[in-house]
Specification:
heterodimer, A: 7-stranded mixed sheet, 16 strands, globular, B: alpha/beta, two-stranded antiparallel ribbon
Chain lengths: 396, 310
């Protein structure tokens, strides 16, 4: 029987890793993801898993060892945050274009400088173009489910791609929630046996990984890779369906909350969706046709699904917990691109919020909806790009 | 000890037709190392001459399984491969008796400099693998820039000889001693000019049960500016001048494998190398003297260390 337990997001991920029982885990500690590996190390120490745990000297080596291990032929996992993910950056496209099914939990945290240990999405957004599938999770229950699904997606024939499952640092990683844990055996059955593809350790069929690729082949290989990443969207849908059939939880590429008749809506990633849904409920009680769209799959980006989800909305605020400095939030241009061909083409705003763990309040989200209401009434967007929650008067 | 007859019967694991320069010392060293392995091997390599010239897609010169991921992480990459082997063997997915040797290669740039951290980590963790630094004493692949393995007085493109420069103005790093400081069961310096010594060391390294390290001098005729075809001769002179002592540390015990009856002066090593051509000028005589002093000092130090541990 599945059981209901109280645990933090990090505990849920560690528990999930115990159930998955990966062959190799290589990791280097970094707040706020450290706890995942601490708990998992106890499972290793107690023999609860068969995992070979490689306690490397840096995140760069963590990803390098994951690449070696995955190429050797087995299930490989890791977790990191912020600067650790940034230090892995060089290795991320190597893992993806080598088509290695590594599953990494990214506990989202702000990048330095100034150093800050709290949540924003500058880390995972900073490596969005590294060819990894990126899945974002609203809460601890979902990150637990997403990691299980990620294992299955990553190794499906035709996919063979690494996946990062993102979850908000501290807000989710360190907060205790009520979580339904699935049965060990059922998780094991769901993910199935790992069948390696082109393993280094198959001595009868030697392979060369990571050759030099010059002008004559490089683009062909990159095109094949881009096709594979795009096509993985279908597998994310398939696995979600299989997950629903097995466990009853329903996941899609996006999470549409009261959008069908919404006139105003916000678009968010990760935990802000929880607060956002609360605000939508409040506004609905007042008769405001508010809605929310949460993006679960960020890479490959589900343009069609988003266009369809927002087609009847008149004004949308895209909320970014990261900035592409000198441009806009990273989510905003994607949503704009998705809606460009939409016949209704809603008015759009870009709201930068919550950097470095700054709280996003119910009132602030209400204000955003109010401003969207103004946009609908007047037909004017005003400042498209806005930061909220920043003290304008910065006197000490 | 391996016999030539025995080695000559084994198949080369690095095929001919690769695109390393003619007369490259690296391919000679790598062939000797791979011939020495008694078990099947899986190889990882850092970015560098060896990797780029042997794996130009759609070709590969590697008979064994091979992985290259980046410049600074050959040791970390093979750590992962070895960890997977250990995990799968423990789970019974790889038969218990099936032994595989793991060898990581890196040039001096990828080992002495950018890759030092990942090497240190892997040695400390004690993965069962051999790390081989093929040491041609500069970043040869990118055009002969200085590395921390480049000797004092050598002319390189980022420390060129000029009106106010005689080339590299500081001594090279002693990476072998750094590796030894990790207290690994086996570490050594070797040279392809002394094949029997090298092959014996590879076997010891692969059978030591843990992490091992070998620093192998490997002439680069492009960077050293010597005649093509003199790779082995150059490496032999490095040994005979005690510029490149052959020694090993087995379970903490240091042994010098070759003590030249007559230690040749460093001028013998540098005289046919274009990278030292400027040292023949009278105003640079002090550089030669200083280089000789450095070599003598290190050799005496090594003799003393051997005595200390005897």
């Amino acid at each position: 029987m599945a059981k209901l337990v109280s645990m933090t997001g990090n505990q849920a991920v560690a528990e999930c890793m115990r159930q998955i029982n990966p062959d190799v885990v290589a990791a280097y500690p970094i707040t706020p993801s450290t706890e995942i590996m601490q708990i998992f190390s106890e499972f290793v120490a107690d023999g609860a898993v068969d995992t070979e745990l490689v306690t490397v000297e840096s995140e760069h080596s963590a990803m390098s060892a994951c690449i070696g291990a995955a190429a050797a032929g087995g299930r490989v996992m890791t977790a990191t945050s912020a600067c650790g993910l940034a230090l892995m950056w060089e290795m991320l496209p190597i893992a993806s274009v080598m088509r290695l099914p590594i599953v990494m939990t990214v506990v989202n945290r702000a990048l330095s400088a100034p150093i800050n240990i709290h949540c924003d999405h500058s880390d995972s957004m900073g490596c969005r173009d590294s060819g990894w599938i990126q899945i974002y999770s609203e809460n601890a229950q979902e990150v637990y489910h997403n990691v299980i699904q990620a294992i299955k997606i990553s190794q499906r024939e035709g996919v063979w791609l690494p996946i990062m499952v993102c979850v908000d640092g501290f807000i989710i990683s360190h907060s205790i929630e009520s979580i339904e844990l699935l049965e060990d055996e059922k998780v094991k059955d769901f993910i199935g046996e790992f069948k390696p593809r082109l393993p280094l350790l198959d001595l009868d069929h030697p392979v060369t990984y990571g050759p030099l690729d010059l002008q004559d082949y490089y683009m062909e290989h990159k095109k094949q890779f881009d096709d594979a990443l795009r096509n993985s969207k279908e597998t994310v849908i398939e696995v979600a369906k299989e997950f629903k059939k097995e466990f009853g939880y329903d996941y899609g590429l996006i999470d549409k909350y009261k959008l069908d008749d919404a006139e105003v809506a916000i678009v968010v990633l990760n935990s802000a969706a929880g607060t956002g849904k609360h605000v939508v409920n409040k506004l609905r009680e007042k008769g405001v046709k508010a809605g929310l769209l949460r993006i679960r799959l960020y890479r490959p980006f589900p343009y069609e699904e988003i266009r369809d989800a927002l087609k009847n909305v008149k004004a949308v605020a895209v909320m970014d917990r990261a900035v592409s400095y000198g441009a806009q939030g990273p989510l905003f241009p994607e949503i704009t691109a998705a809606l460009y061909d939409s016949p209704s083409r809603p008015k759009l705003k870009n709201i930068i919020y919550g950097l470095g763990g700054r709280d996003i309040s119910i009132e602030e989200i209400e204000d955003i909806f109010c401003s969207l209401d103004d946009v609908v009434r007047t037909g004017k967007v005003g400042n498209v790009y806005q930061w909220i929650g920043v003290r304008e008067d910065n006197k000490r | 000890m391996a016999s030539l007859k025995e080695l000559s019967k084994k198949k080369d694991l690095l095929t001919s037709g690769h695109r390393l320069c003619s007369g490259c010392g690296v391919s000679i060293a790598v062939r000797q190392i791979l011939l020495a392995a008694e078990n099947p091997v899986v190889v990882s390599s850092a970015t560098g001459c060896l990797e780029v010239a042997t794996t130009i897609f759609p070709y590969t010169a590697w008979k064994p399984s091979f992985i290259h991921s980046a410049f600074e992480n050959s040791a970390a990459t093979i750590s992962g491969v070895e960890a997977m082997y250990k995990s799968l063997q423990r789970q019974g997915k790889i038969p218990e008796g099936k032994k595989i040797d793991f060898i990581a290669f890196g040039g001096d740039g990828g080992t002495y400099d950018i890759g030092l951290q990942s090497l240190s980590g892997a040695l400390e963790r004690g993965h069962r693998f051999l790390y081989v630094c093929y040491n041609n004493e500069a970043y040869m692949n990118t055009g002969i820039q200085r590395s921390s393995a480049t000797p004092y007085g050598a002319n390189t493109t980022t420390r060129p000889v000029g009106k106010k420069s005689f080339g590299k103005s500081v001594d090279r790093k002693d990476l072998t001693q750094i590796a030894i400081a990790h207290k690994i069961p086996y570490a050594a310096q070797a040279s392809p000019s002394h094949w029997n010594d090298l092959v014996t060391k590879v076997r010891k390294a692969l059978n030591c049960g843990g992490a091992s390290f070998m620093n192998v001098i490997a002439n680069c005729n492009r960077g050293w500016r010597n005649d093509t075809g003199k790779a082995v001769e150059m490496c032999r002179l490095a040994v005979q001048t005690c510029y490149w002592p052959l020694y090993e540390v087995e379970n903490g015990k240091l042994k010098i494998n070759l003590k030249p009856k007559e230690k040749k002066p460093i001028t013998e090593f540098i005289k046919d190398q274009g990278r030292f051509a400027h040292l023949k000028r009278p105003e640079n005589q002090h550089v030669v003297e200083e280089l000789q002093h450095m070599v003598d000092h290190d050799w005496e130090h090594l003799l003393a260390l051997e005595k200390l541990e005897a």
